[in-house]
Design brief:
InterPro entries: A_deaminase_dom (IPR001365), Ado/ade_deaminase (IPR006330), Metal_Hydrolase (IPR032466). The protein has 367 residues and is of the alpha/beta class. The protein contains 16 helices and eight strands. A four-stranded parallel beta sheet has the order 1-2-3-4, sandwiched between helices. Strands 5-6-7-8 form a four-stranded parallel beta sheet.
Length: 367
């Protein structure tokens, strides 16, 4: 069993000064961030065949498989991570390690996004899956505290957009809103499965004053973002990288479309995931990623890893790429970190406490 409590994130230099910056991660899939050695060990326990026999080979296979330029193909390797997350023990271990890996990455607040309906193949009920994940998150937070580390973590319960269980999953989220579930999402193949397909679930959550973020504007265009915001009451947009397709972008005379202008004026938070977007074909390079133009215009952008295993990334690596490949500086990183915390589904008093006690002082020490 893996024994290192806080392993340095993959692809990050141990002494990178960005590693110690306090971060807030809003878009990080639980089943996309497993430790490769954990997958190997859990797969061996249940007799699940993997495409590689050891952790290093498995990590390389995941990243190569996800470098497809297509969202549907990017999602296919998740069959192996979800396969080892079908028991309470497996879910609890994965969630615990997910928290510890956040701590190692300098993250002080994180939302674990995952779909309970994908974890009942071995007989767990939906409620049991949520309880197992929460137990793992709590274990990770407690283990970090024993080492003098502060982190807060919440669940984002997700329904699969190609299925017909969104209202059932919405009710599941509401049942556990006082036990760690902070929000609701839909995920999966975006094209052909618009947010409005799940209108009943979103209307229910809206009536119950429950936070919503929706994957939109990644594999589908601005119309997906419009539905998420105007029909389905989303408070945040997952990805949103294709938002600018409704605008005329030029250095001389940029003209925002109606949707982009509304998102800017309302300061709708955008959960941008630069490295992941390169893999799915939603962007061509970090230097040319829409996040840079959005930042220059004052959109409410946040930086996120999406799937740390599949993209070989972390919050620190995303920040390092933006610094090295797009010319960002510490002030930019502080701005998106504050944006993320203020846009989180954490209660106001806790947000304010993290901001005043940890996030702002952490950036002031390096400024």
């Amino acid at each position: 069993m893996t024994t290192e409590l806080f392993p340095v994130p993959y692809g990050v230099a141990p002494h990178d000064p960005l590693l110690s910056l306090p971060k807030c991660s809003l878009h990080d899939h639980l089943d996309g961030g497993l430790r490769p050695q954990t997958i190997v060990e859990l797969a061996d326990e249940i007799g699940h065949d993997l495409p590689a026999a050891d952790a290093d080979g498995l990590r390389a296979w995941f990243q190569e498989s996800c470098d497809s330029g297509d969202l549907v193909r990017y999602l296919a390797p998740f069959e192996h991570t979800t396969a080892v997350m079908q028991t309470s023990g497996g879910l609890q271990r994965v969630a615990r390690e997910w928290v510890l890996d956040q701590v190692a990455d300098g993250v002080v607040y994180a939302e674990a996004r995952w779909a309970p309906e994908q974890h009942t193949a071995d007989g767990l009920t939906l409620d049991e899956t949520v309880e197992a994940v929460q137990a793992g998150l709590d274990d990770g937070i407690a283990a970090a505290a024993l080492e003098g580390k502060t982190i807060m973590a919440r669940q984002i319960v997700t329904a699969m957009r190609h299925a017909d269980r969104s209202e059932e999953i919405a009710r599941l989220a509401l049942r556990h809103r006082d036990n760690g579930v902070a929000g609701f999402d839909i995920a999966g193949a975006e094209a052909g499965f618009p947010p409005s397909r799940h209108q009943a679930a979103f209307d229910l959550l809206h009536r119950e004053n429950f936070p919503v973020t929706i994957h939109a504007g990644e594999a589908a265009g601005p119309e997906s973002i419009w539905e998420a915001l105007q029909l389905c009451h989303a408070q945040r947009i997952g990805h949103g990288v294709r938002l600018l397709e409704d605008s005329e972008i030029s250095d001389a005379d940029p003209k925002l479309g109606r949707l982009s202008a509304w998102v800017l004026d309302q300061q709708v938070p955008l959960e941008l995931c630069p490295s992941s977007n390169l893999q799915t074909g939603a962007a061509t390079s970090i230097a040319d990623h829409p996040i840079n133009w959005l930042k220059s215009r004052g959109f409410n952008i946040t930086v996120n890893p999406d799937n740390r295993l599949m993209s070989g990334t972390s919050m620190t690596r995303e920040m390092r790429r933006l610094v090295d490949e797009a010319g960002w500086d510490t002030d930019d990183l502080m701005w998106v970190s504050v944006n993320a915390l203020e846009s989180s589904f954490l209660d106001f008093d806790s947000r304010l406490g993290l901001l005043d006690d940890i996030v702002l002082p952490g950036y002031e020490r390096v400024s």
